[in-house]
Design goal:
Number of strands: 0
Helix content: over 70%
Number of helices: 5
Largest sheet: none
Strand content: under 5%
Oligomer: single chain
Number of domains: 1
Structural class: mainly alpha
Shape: flat
Radius of gyration: 17 Å
């Protein structure tokens, strides 16, 4: 069975986010380990990772659109998306609690910001993985 355009879209988003933000967290981890604490250095790295993600998304969506048939979202796609988001949103809540704890404990802002960004990234990636699972096994 061939994957629908919506399922391919989820794979594309997961891949771009994994590569773009994965690279960000590798380099950010090295920066934190070496003592970098200036938020501007992390902001520049984040902007670069977002640019990489956008380029990957544009290229991958172009290939997907040229090689397949683009269909609209149907009720099944919306249900899969909602169900995956519902089951992955708790990660953001944990990240926000972790960030608030960091702020209360006086932890550097770069750590707090990265805790928030990591929780958002993990939540989104978990949502994409769950969508793929639901497409493959059915809702």
């Amino acid at each position: 069975m061939s994957a629908s355009f919506e399922e391919k879209s989820v794979w594309i988003q997961l891949g771009a986010m994994t590569l773009g933000l994965g690279a960000y967290f590798v380099f950010a981890g090295r920066m934190l380990a070496s003592g970098v604490r200036e938020m501007s250095a992390f902001a520049s790295l984040f902007v670069l990772s977002v640019v990489v993600m956008v380029v990957l998304l544009v290229v991958a969506y172009s290939v997907a659109a040229l090689t397949g048939r683009v269909e609209g979202r149907d009720e099944r796609d919306r249900l899969i998306s909602w169900k995956a988001e519902h089951r992955s949103a708790w990660v953001i809540a944990v990240g926000v609690l972790g960030a608030v704890t960091c702020m209360a404990a006086g932890v550097d802002n770069v750590w707090t910001a990265n805790v928030l960004l990591l929780s958002l990234a993990i939540s989104e990636m978990l949502g994409f993985v769950l969508q793929i699972v639901y497409y493959r096994r059915g809702v």
